[in-house]
Amino acid sequence: MRVMICGKVVVFALCLTSMVSRAADISERDAVLQNYPADVREKLAAGIDAAGTNRTQILKALASVSGRDRSAMQFLVLNMPKRDLRGLTSDFLLDNVRLSRKARETCSWGAKLPDEIYFNNVLPYASLNERRDNWRADFYKRFAPLVAKCTSPGEAALILNREVFRLFNVHYHATKRRKPDQSPYESIKLGFASCTGLSILLVDACRSVGVPARIAGTPMWTTRRGNHTWVEVWSGGSWHFIGAAESSRLDDGWFIADAAAADPSKPLHWIYASSFKKTALHFPLIWDLSIDYVPAENVTEFYRGFGKKAKVGGTDAEQKAMNAAEKKISRSGADGK
């Protein structure tokens, strides 16, 4: 009887301790959230709770910012997938917010960027499901000098597309890359990447210096030759496309004719653009269709309309086109000629 009573006392004490600890956690969370707009506190609280054992890191990130950085951190936490809520440190998030603001403040077009474009296409630390690399400080140091004299995001993106792959010695290869969704440093270490890996690397290089960029692509061409991924950059008030390690100018690429043939009645043949902000649509990742946490926009009609207006010759072989483009970039050197 004494053992049973003692056991009940221990269980009660443990439950009481857990309740007190939980109450303290909620109190700390609510105190931090008082610094954020009332209409988002409930959603931020849900994000903190979804972080599980990583909740202290998310709380620290939210508590350690002020001013415009607070709005940026709010955007990230409201839209982060659960894997990031449970895995990213406060230092990673704080560095990302601080360095993205620095890029915006130092580029000539930064003051003119709408907040919604900046938050969704410069601030984010990832595009798809790739490994979360801490690339921002390194890339800013490398690439800010290259685009210091640029007057538009589009001009900067073209320079980066010419220089990034040469500097890192990263090339397209359909089989020598280890996986389609490589992170920047995975591609740099290996020296090869898929069209998706090249696009992820270019998007991150762009974002590091304040150029709004996102992934675009299709899970399957209507010709059923396979999928393809490229990059979109925001410049002059609208989105423009560019093939990573391919294009020498905006809104040009071997894939224009294929994209123009996209079938708006079949999601498998749509053209998607990635988003960090949550949307009603997810980006179908052909290498793992079970992943549904990458938001997207349907931009099929833009490419259908663009292709009808453009003079395009197209190509019958994606592999040959990309290899030819990669060889051209490799031979071009610093001046791209």
What are the salient characteristics of this protein?
six-stranded antiparallel sheet, 337 residues, 2 domains, 50% helix, alpha+beta, two-stranded parallel sheet, globular, C8orf32 fold, disordered C terminus
Report on the structure:
- 50% of the residues lie in helices and 9% in strands.
- It has 337 residues and is of the alpha+beta class.
- It has two domains: 24-88, no CATH class; 115-335, C8orf32 fold (Roll), CATH 3.10.620.
- The strands form two sheets. The protein has a six-stranded antiparallel sheet. The protein has a two-stranded parallel ribbon with strand order 1-2.
- α3 runs parallel beside α6 (90-106) and α8 crosses α11 (195-208).
- The N and C termini lie far apart (89 Å).
